[in-house]
Design goal:
About 55% of the residues lie in helices and about 0% in strands. With about 55 residues, the protein is mainly α. The two termini are about 30 Å apart. The relative contact order is 0.08.
């Protein structure tokens, strides 16, 4: 990626690695609700992609 950015005259910089500080417990009813809502969001966001994959 560095060469792509530098082609446009922008200097590439190193970014710090950000580690996750929270852990999600996906067990139980609240975990099921998180999985359902994230799944619905992904399906709604990428609807054209899923349609194309379905008809391959």
């Amino acid at each position: 990626m560095t060469f792509k950015v530098e082609n446009y005259g922008v200097k590439a910089v190193q970014r710090p690695k950000i580690r996750a500080t929270k852990e999600l417990d996906l067990s139980g009813i609240s975990g099921q609700q998180i999985v359902k809502s994230e799944t619905k969001l992904a399906l709604r966001t990428h609807i054209k992609t899923f349609k194309k994959l379905a008809y391959m």
